[in-house]
Amino acid sequence: MSDGDAKTADGQHRQALEVLSERLGRHQVFGTPVQQGDTTLVPVAHVRAGSGFGRAKRELNGGGGVVARPAGAFGVTSDGKVAWHPAVDVNRIVLGGQLAFAAVAIAFAIAFRRRR
User: Fold this and answer.
1) Is residue 105 situated within a structural domain?
2) Could you list the residue ranges that cross the membrane (predicted)?
3) Strand pairing of 34-36 and 59-77?
4) 63-105: per-residue pLDDT in tens?
């Protein structure tokens, strides 16, 4: 890789990071606080971002992505007490139930297969 290619790759890398930071916005982890009675709720999310660059046939290619999942919310009361309210991920609960059911079904199948 020549010095000019390295500078071009560095410039494209910086440009991609700038675009990614613009797309994430100001509220990438903490959302806008919401007033609910005398309690203020501050939503929180798990945010993961990744990117990669590579070269194919003398052409620089890159890509990236962002994944955000709700984690819960902090509740701040008017007297200053802070409480954490976790978000419930129903998909994860269902998947856990399906995996447990599959494990039990396999165990029964193995147990009945050996008896014959």
Assistant:
1) no
2) 93-112
3) unpaired
4) 888 888 888 888 888 888 888 899 988 888 999 999 999 999 9
